[in-house]
Design brief:
The chain is α/β, with parallel strands linked by helices. The chain has helices at about 15-20, 35-45, 55-60, 100-115, 130-135, 140-145, 160-170, 185-200, and strands at about 5-10, 30-35, 50-55, 65-75, 80-85, 95, 120-125, 135-140, 155-160, 175-180. Helix 4 (about 100-115) links the parallel strand 6 and strand 7 (about 120-125).
């Protein structure tokens, strides 16, 4: 049994997957960050296992999935939202949160295939006011999306990307997965990850 280095997402929606694991110091040591940071840590080999954006798993053929564990939604997700100052069909520019590449990729797919728009995308730090000063809409993920109440922000539409994906496809969406290279986890690590998922 060895301690593996883990990159885990700091957002509330990922807590059920890591709750209880932090206390198992004989199995895991953690670094927390936004999804894009977890992907970078895994790519740089600074961690052995990462809760990474799905798109990052697809970009790296040497990564292996931990089966049946991830951040998944079927319908509204709450933590990935587009805030728009005008109806979606009138949106011409979108500020994209730098924290997740999967959400940004899904947004591009939805714009092309579902909303039927071709906006310009601008990568920005996740600050709604700054984003909306520059663009017609802003993509926020994680806690920023969860805790931004659009009712308190005058004249904004909040569009849940998980809900839009399911409306378009009638399928669930996988936002993040546990991934690492061959041999990163043994049976004891896998059992602990499964128990955390089941308890979460």
């Amino acid at each position: 049994m060895s301690v593996i280095r883990v990159g885990a997402v700091q957002y509330l929606n990922a807590r059920p997957l890591v709750h209880g694991l932090e206390a198992q110091k004989d199995l895991f040591s953690f670094k927390f960050g936004v999804p894009a940071k977890c992907a970078s840590l895994l790519h740089e080999r600074s961690v052995d296992l990462g809760l990474i954006p799905t798109i990052e798993y697809l970009r790296k053929p040497d990564y292996r999935l931990v089966p049946d564990i991830g951040v998944v939604s079927h319908g509204p997700v709450g933590s990935v939202a587009l805030f728009a100052t005008r109806p979606i069909q009138a949106v011409r520019s979108i500020a994209v949160d730098t924290s997740s590449r999967t959400a940004a990729t899904l947004l591009r797919i939805l714009c092309a295939e579902w909303f039927d728009i071709e906006p310009k995308f601008h990568t920005m730090a996740p600050d709604l006011d700054s984003m909306l000063k520059r663009c017609d809409a802003a993509l926020l993920i994680g806690d920023a999306a969860l805790f931004t109440e659009h009712e308190t922000v005058v004249d904004l539409d909040k569009i849940d990307l998980g809900e839009e994906w399911t409306s378009m496809t009638n399928l669930p969406f996988v936002w993040a997965v546990w991934a690492g290279r061959d041999g990163a986890v043994d049976s004891e690590h896998l059992l602990a990850l499964e128990k955390a998922r089941d308890a979460g």
